[in-house]
Amino acid sequence: MKTSKDKSKNLATPGKPMSQDEFVSLIKEAEEGEFMTLEESKRKFNEWRLQRKK
Predict the structure, then answer these.
(1) Which residues 6+ apart lie within 8 Å of 37 measured at CB?
(2) In the chain, where are the structural domains located?
């Protein structure tokens, strides 16, 4: 089961349990993205922070 980006689902809503299949699908979808090293993410964050100060 693949989650759809068209359906915006509020996962923070209490009292609405998620099925095991939906949970696994969300985890797999997150794992397919591009990842940065810690150093790359710190550099990008500092660049963003400097741009915000201006």
Answers:
(1) none
(2) 20-52
**pLDDT reported for residue 4:** 55
Residues 6+ apart with CB under 8 A from 35: none
The model's pTM: 0.45
Question: By mean pLDDT, which of 4-8, 17-21, 25-29 is the weakest?
Answer: 4-8
Place of tokens 């400097």: 50
CA angle 4/33/15 to nearest 5° reads 45
Q: Residue 47 and residue 25: Cα distance in Å, rounded?
A: 33
